[in-house]
Amino acid sequence: MIDPPHANAYIGIMAAHHHHEHAGASLAQAAEAALVGAGEQWTDMRSDIFAVLATFEKPASAYDIADLVSQKRGKRVAPNSVYRILDLFVTTNLARRVESANAYIANSHPGCLHDCIFLICDSCGTATHIDDDALTMRVRAAAEHAGFAQVRPVIEVRGKCADCD
Amino acid sequence: MIDPPHANAYIGIMAAHHHHEHAGASLAQAAEAALVGAGEQWTDMRSDIFAVLATFEKPASAYDIADLVSQKRGKRVAPNSVYRILDLFVTTNLARRVESANAYIANSHPGCLHDCIFLICDSCGTATHIDDDALTMRVRAAAEHAGFAQVRPVIEVRGKCADCD
DNA sequence: TTTAGCGATGTAATGTTGTAACGTGCATCG
DNA sequence: CGATGCACGTTACAACATTACATCGCTAAA
Asked: Which domain holds residue B89?
């Protein structure tokens, strides 16, 4: 997903474990399992919202999601309800909030806990992510060094993606 | 500013250059110099907005600033105008936008270019920052490795500060 | 079986953040 | 003088987010 189309000299150390990158039905199943595993219910509404969220390549706003879920259900779903469920998804690691875009993105490997590094293209808006635990751990360490506790890193990079460059 | 009240084993490599951390009038002067140096004007409005911004410990929203500047001038200043000037400040490095707070903070060493790492306390809202070029360069490198260009890192850490912990 | 409680969702209103479009005043320069 | 450019004003609106309270359906205790 994140490998570039060109050779390079990058020396970052990637996390030394395997991901199960899910997509489509497989992802939905993994999400359901993760949510149930967290002691929460997998309701129709949650299922629909997750499904819609997962179809986006770009970070989706709560209002985008509300619109699509409304269509899908043939009945208006208020942004309010969407926010509630997105918050739940974020706390249970089924989705992430992209702070610099005021939007959300499905976690393609729920159940697997990382500090993600998001790359968001300013031109086309698509977002991808990197898992580089060595790097994110350094950020955590720096914050803890400064006396912070319960740290939650927000690491995003805006720029031009390879396609738009 | 960022040194913690406790001993530690942190091994991050800090930027090997000196900062002139400004405050108060000195900071305003430095800001003026930086803006003029960038070929922009230092107007009364810009001066007032910068002054107000600089009094905040916490990231300030454009609306906060609009309110205070309105008071100071005895005349309503629209958020619109504040945004224009904040955008200018951000592009000229006099201020930074804190994405995870939808707010702005004065750069205490304008003219000195860094990718800052912001630490924002979820309890009291205060923000501090770290300059660790070694670390931010790795983030840049990771993004460039993924094919991104013109990268602009957004590195923020939410958590509890030493005082609130 | 009733009913009290609880979690999930609906509804409405409102608050906050951000942008667009266009007008005005003022300085500079030909 | 008139044209240009920049800063700022004014209005309207779009986008993002939260609050308070109502309703529904399930289940567990009386």
From this structure: 21-112
pTM of the model: 0.88
Number of domains in chain B: 2
Q: Checking DSSP bridges between strand A117-121 and strand A149-160, what pairing results, if any?
A: parallel
Residue B11 lies in a domain: no
Same domain, A122 and A48: no
Give the whole-number percent of chain B exceeding pLDDT 70.
85
In chain A, which residues touch B (CB < 8 A)? 2-6, 8, 10, 12, 99-100, 102, 117, 119, 121-122, 128, 130, 132, 135, 138-162, 165
* Same domain? B32 vs B81: yes
d(CA B26, CA B24): 5
Residue B16 within a domain: no
CA A86 from centroid of its chain's CA atoms: 11
Residue A44's SS3 state is helix
Tell me, what's the pLDDT at B10?
43
Tokens standing for residue B159? 């958590």
N- to C-terminal Cα distance for chain A? Answer: 18
Same domain, A126 and A141: yes
B82-92 pLDDT per residue, tens: 999 999 999 99
What is the per-residue pLDDT across B47-79, written as a single tens digit (0 to 9) for each? 999 999 999 989 999 999 999 999 999 999 999
Nucleotides of strand D under 7 angstroms from a protein beta carbon: 6-12, 15-20
User: Which of A104, A157, A164 is the best substitution to test chain B (most B C-beta atoms within 10 A)?
Assistant: A157
Same domain for B127 and B50: no
Is there contact between B76 and strand D, defined as CB under 7 Å from any strand atom? yes
**Which of A147, A153, A159 is facing B148, going by the closest CB pair?**
A159
